[in-house]
Amino acid sequence: MSQPAQRAATQSFINKFINKQTLKYVFTTHFWGPVSNFGIPLAAIYDLKKDPELISGPMTGALIAYSAVFMRYALAVTPKNYLLFGCHIINEGAQIGQAVRFLNYHYLSPGRETKKESSA
């Protein structure tokens, strides 16, 4: 690519993505709220590999309800906050995965009692 064409492509990219409106959006709670909230689904995804004995059933249930409420909220506000919606849909999936692991380990897994008895 020639240098003038490359310069034009770079300028086009900058004008499209790095402009006053984008910078204004980045400095709002509409952006930073969901970005900081992404820690919850990232932690849940990371915890999917940990021992299911460590999962708190009540907390997982609370996080499932919390994410469902905020998915609705993200689409009810004006303007719609798709970043918040995406954060909570990911969290909902991760928390449901944790809930399935919790239920399997504590209620549906045959032989769980024998594992605990043999280790004691």
From TrEMBL:
Organism of provenance: Lachancea mirantina
Cellular component terms (Gene Ontology): mitochondrial inner membrane
Protein localization: Mitochondrion inner membrane
Family as reported in the entry's similarity comment: Belongs to the mitochondrial pyruvate carrier (MPC) (TC 2.A.105) family.
Function: Mediates the uptake of pyruvate into mitochondria.
UniProt keyword terms in alphabetical order: Membrane, Mitochondrion, Mitochondrion inner membrane, Transmembrane, Transmembrane helix, Transport
Membrane-topology descriptor: Multi-pass membrane protein
GO biological process, one term: pyruvate import into mitochondria
Highest taxon of the lineage: Eukaryota
Protein name as catalogued: Mitochondrial pyruvate carrier
Lineage: Eukaryota, Fungi, Dikarya, Ascomycota, Saccharomycotina
